[in-house]
Please model this.
Amino acid sequence: MTITVVMVVRLHNLFAVVMLGGIYSLLAATMFVLFDAVDVAFTEAAVGAGVSTVLLLGALALTSREEKDTGKLAVIPLIIVITVGIALIYGTLDMPLYGDPNAPIHVHVAPYYLERGMVETSVPNIVTAVLASYRGFDTLGEVCVVFTAGIGVLMLLSRERLTRRYRGVGGDKR
Amino acid sequence: MNHHLVVRVVSKLLIPFILLFGLYVQFHGDFGPGGGFQAGVIFAAALILYALVFGLDNARKVAPDSAVRVGMATGVLLFGFTGVASLLGGGNYLDYSALSQNPLGGQHLGILLVELGVGITVCSVMIAIFFSFAGRNHRLDKLEE
Amino acid sequence: MEFPGLYDYWIVVALMMAGLYIVIARRNLVKQMVGLGIFQSSVFIFYIAMGKVEGGTAPILTEGATAYSNPLPHVLILTAIVVGVATLALGLALIVRINEAYGTIEEDEIHEKEAQQ
Model:
């Protein structure tokens, strides 16, 4: 997985970069399965490797395929990145160990969902129960965000807008 | 892609199964992995495959722009009105137990409706985004000709 | 994945820094979007790794299983992935418009053309 990412950083052919992005998503999905998150793995495989690769390819077809090679290594960003990385790793030293059942995240509301979820909603898949029932408001918000992003893309790229501009009318009709 | 016979035949075979799998994921999300988000994306992926292989114009006939736009709004409204329905039933907003006489049945109905709303919105948004990207490409080709 | 301890978090940090480097060092807008995606999914992996419980199974209730992984991060990340692709599409749409207006997707060249006007 790390190799894929390093290749993404190095390569200048954007087509290859997008394809490696798809491979990276699939690897992330397998990682999610290892972490017991089957729902998330499912979504990542469908969205990351499928839809977003297609969208990136569509955008490439509309723009250019090659990245311009600047030739020089960017030193200042590299220093910043390494510093931030070291700071973050220092931060992880205080984290609870991987898979520790007594980590703070596992003793708050999660046991309630796991114990009461079946009794209160009769849905065995706790992820679905929490998503749709306990945290319905969250999900409503997320759906609104997706909806708004869709409207934004339609506004930016839709046909009416283009024809109006090519006719030279321009501006919004109010 | 008109000359790729193998691609055409294989995708013709695959698309019904992808759609069926999308429906399974949508309605079986209560019991196994799955739900509205995944099902919407899978459904949209089937249509995107169709558009890639058989051309954008044919795909637009299957899913007209107006229908896609209506679908985007319908999903959100279905979600919102499920909440309003539980308000009318005497509960809190999005408290599905009030939807039916039996709280468990109400929860089940509510989750099903909400997931359906999520699925419709996600599917339509993905299709709309893909169509607008691909459609722009198409038109630019024509302009260059 | 038998490594105990903090190994997973370090992978996450490495991925996140690679994404950050692409975003700030590279001048190509599409590549910056890919870098942003890598950054994003490193955060996803971080959340999911925190939700893992040793010896647990996926949070779908079945008979015979006693320990389950934490379902809460799964829910958050599930929605975040779909929102992520929607925002990615929005960013790409903006890039396409920029390309139509300036004829390039390299940040330097855009700045040059801005300065000329």
Q: What stands out?
A: DSSP finds five helices and no strands in chain B.
